[in-house]
């Protein structure tokens, strides 16, 4: 009897692993976007946390205030990464039932 429960559990674990692998592949195809400075800097990040695009409006480039541009790039990048992590957490959390599994987002 115990062996049948073990086999059933292993089958469920294998199915969950397949679903998680599929979700991770899907995350690589999903993209989030964030901006700073009223849209002067826009950053796009995939659900698997890869920056795919950074756009800077030419009006944001002030040679006398490079620090402001750096701050806008950092703010947009951090917000895009936060949004991508939230997306991954939502997608993966549904599969793991909210369990925090080390190594998974």
Provide a concise account of the structure shown.
With 105 residues, this protein is an alpha+beta fold.
Give the topology, please.
Elements: H1 2-29, E1 31-36, E2 41-46, E3 51-56, H2 66-96
Antiparallel strand pairs: 1-2, 2-3
Explain this structure to me?
With 105 residues, this protein is of the alpha+beta class. It has a single domain (2-96), classed as Nucleoid-associated protein YbaB-like domain (Ybab, Chain: A). It is built from two helices and three strands. The chain has helices at residues 2-29, 66-96, and strands spanning 31-36, 41-46, 51-56. It has a three-stranded antiparallel beta sheet with strand order 1-2-3. A hairpin with a 4-residue loop joins strand 1 (31-36) and strand 2 (41-46). The mean pLDDT is 86.
CATH topology annotation = Ybab, Chain: A
CATH superfamily: Nucleoid-associated protein YbaB-like domain
Large-scale geometry: rod-shaped
Mean of the pLDDT scores? Answer: 86
Please tally the helical runs, counting DSSP H or I stretches of 4 or more residues: 2
CATH class assignment: Alpha Beta
Helix-strand makeup class: alpha+beta
Tell me the radius of gyration: 20 Å
Question: Can you give the helix content as a percent range?
Answer: 55-70%
How many structural domains in the coordinates?
1
Q: How many beta-strand runs? A: 3
Span of the ends, CA to CA: 36 Å
Main β-sheet, in a few words?
3 strands, antiparallel
Order of helices and strands: HEEEH
Unreliable stretches (pLDDT < 50, length at least 5) are none
């Amino acid at each position: 009897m115990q062996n049948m429960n073990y086999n059933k559990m292993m089958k469920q674990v294998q199915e969950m692993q397949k679903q998680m692998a599929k979700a991770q592949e899907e995350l690589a195809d999903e993209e989030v976007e964030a901006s700073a400075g009223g849209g002067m800097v826009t950053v796009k990040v995939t659900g698997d946390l890869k920056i795919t695009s950074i756009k800077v409006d030419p009006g944001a480039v002030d040679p006398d205030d490079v620090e402001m541009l750096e701050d806008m790039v950092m703010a947009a990048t951090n917000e895009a990464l936060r949004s991508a992590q939230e997306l991954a957490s939502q997608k993966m959390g549904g599969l793991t039932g909210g369990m925090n599994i080390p190594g998974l987002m």
